[in-house]
Amino acid sequence: MSIQVNNLSKKYGQQLALDSISFSIPSGAVVGFLGPNGAGKSTTMKILTGYIPATTGNASVCKLDLAEHSLEVRKLVGYLPEHNPLYLDMYITEYLLFAAGIAGVKNTKKALEMAIELTQLGPERNKKIGQLSKGYRQRVGLAQALIHDPKVLILDEPTSGLDPNQVVEIRNVIKNLGSEKTVLLSTHIMQEVEAMCNRVILINKGKIIADDTLEGLKNTAPSDSLETIFRNLTSHVGSI
Amino acid sequence: MWEVFKKEIRSFLGSFIAYIVMGVFLAITGLFMWIIKGNNVLDLGVASLQVMFNIAPYILIFLVSAITMRSLSEERRLGTIEILTTRPVSDLSILLGKYLAAVALIVFTLLPTLFYYYTIQQLADPLQGTDAGATWGSYFGLILLAASYASIGLFASSLTDNQIVSLIISMVLCFFWYGVLSLLGDIKALDAIGKSLEWFSLDFHYQSISRGVLDTRDVIYFFGFIAAFLGATKIAFESRKW
Q1: pLDDT beyond 50 at B239
Q2: Cα-flanking dihedrals φ and ψ of residue A57, to 5°?
Q3: Which of B79, B87, B89 is the closest to A85 by Cβ?
Q4: What gap in Å lies between CA A196 and CA B20, rounded to an integer?
């Protein structure tokens, strides 16, 4: 198992953000982490990348426990946080060399070329990050996440705010990556999952409400579209 | 740690902060040493850098706070802190990288003032020369003082994602530890309490080292001070884990 999560809970103060969730992801899978805003997707990802600790429960990446082997796990994981934070005043190559350096890469030049190749940043490589369009910034964020050739990629809403062409481009990049890496990506857009993932974990209000292949999910209500299934599972009678 | 250090230095050089800090420091100390009437070296006729060493702590309160105000607050505002802290580097090495970069910039800022020292040596009475012990002691003291300011500044910047708030907190804390505490010693009514509070001030130990006699107690005080503030920074930096 590439990612193993057991009874993970997270409390922010009094608010329960994650309520004892469990799932496991085998290596080489592209899994869509789906749910409405505030469902707990980002929280789960922040725990898996070691940014914040879980309140209770445990999780492991590539059989390494998160709490015990935090630094080792971080070497195996590439992370694109929500909103794709970047240093706008840095040059692309400068930033990616820095990202390679702190990721512990020995041959940073080679890693840089590999990441630029994978994300097709070539034509823009000599620009400052602040000069780039949103689509290219997203590629820089992706390049940063995979510069140390991680086994597991965790991408928090990798396509949010992009125009349709850019969405397709980024999807293709992720799809290609999925052939050799385990990818966990979050989104609240159904088409996203259809286009990239072979499995869906549906989460709502901190609980997992469905964990199935795409076909399996479709078969639960064959006449409905995925959009409708999503709405039926995550909306609650009386809430609106 | 060195990756973060290198990135910080590049960002100082790229954002002109480095040049502004160096320029302002040299301009103000230069004015007080040579031009402003009354206390300057030529009017006093004393071959020493004392004028600079008296004014520098106050200039540095502002400049060091300006150097460190963005170091952590900017990472928080941009969200890049999430990338930094999920890489295989410990929180401590991130903080040390940033801290040492700030200290390195300050040392570089002080270097050109060695030219003043050279000038003073040329002006001094050839038979008496200059007081080398006091000068090098003062330089050492000034670096320790600025390094203490930098630890305060880093702490202030770990508290907020707003650079201006960080700058103000840092300046207030620096002024408190440097100026306010040492003034308490002068208040007669406080008597012994004032004197012992004065012992805790940065100024007390800075003055002590400046005399050119290296007392290990002063050095230990400064290192303890820096360690305490870096420790507090680490606690604030890890508040996300609470």
Answers
A1: yes
A2: 90, 175
A3: B79
A4: 50
CA-based nearest distance B184→chain A, Å: 41
From first to last of the 240 residues of chain A, give the pLDDT tens digit: 789 999 999 998 888 899 999 999 998 888 998 888 888 899 999 999 989 999 999 899 998 998 888 899 999 999 999 889 999 989 999 999 999 999 989 999 999 999 998 888 888 889 999 999 888 899 899 999 989 999 999 999 888 778 888 888 888 888 888 888 899 999 877 778 888 888 889 898 889 988 888 888 888 877 777 778 778 877 764 444
Helical H segments across A78-189, by residue range: 92-102, 108-119, 134-146, 164-178
Of B3, B78, B88, the CB nearest to A98: B3
Residues B119, B122, B125, B129, CA torsion sign: positive
Instruction: Please state, in angstroms and as integers, the Cα–Cα distance from residue B5 to each residue in A130, A204, B9, following that order.
Output: 22, 42, 6
Q: Do B83 and A99 touch (CB under 8 A)?
A: yes
CA B202/CA B177 separation, integer angstroms: 6
Q: Could you tell me the residue ranges of all domains in chain A?
A: 3-234
Residues of B in contact with A87 (CB under 8 A): 11, 78, 80
Q: Where are the beta strands (DSSP E) in chain A?
A: 3-12, 15-25, 30-34, 56-61, 64-65, 77-80, 152-156, 182-187, 199-204, 207-213
Q: A94 to chain B: which residues are within 8 Å by CB?
A: 10
Q: Indicate which of B75, B76, B83 best probes the interface with A, i.e. most A CBs within 10 Å of its own CB.
A: B83
- Cα separation, B149 vs B202, in Å, equals 9
pLDDT digits (tens, 9 = 90+) for B194-221: 778 888 889 989 988 888 788 899 999 9
State the CATH architecture for A3-234. Answer: 3-Layer(aba) Sandwich (3.40)
Strand, helix or coil for residue A23: strand
* φ, ψ of residue A182 in degrees (nearest 5): -85, 130
Distance (Å) from the alpha carbon of B229 to chain A's nearest alpha carbon: 23
Its pTM stands at 0.90
pLDDT band at B236 (very low <50, low <70, confident <90, very high): very high
Cβ atoms within 10 Å of B111's Cβ, excluding its own: 11
What φ, ψ does residue B126 adopt, rounded to 5°? Answer: -60, -25
Predicted ipTM of the assembly? 0.87
Number of neighbouring beta carbons within 10 Å of residue B215: 12
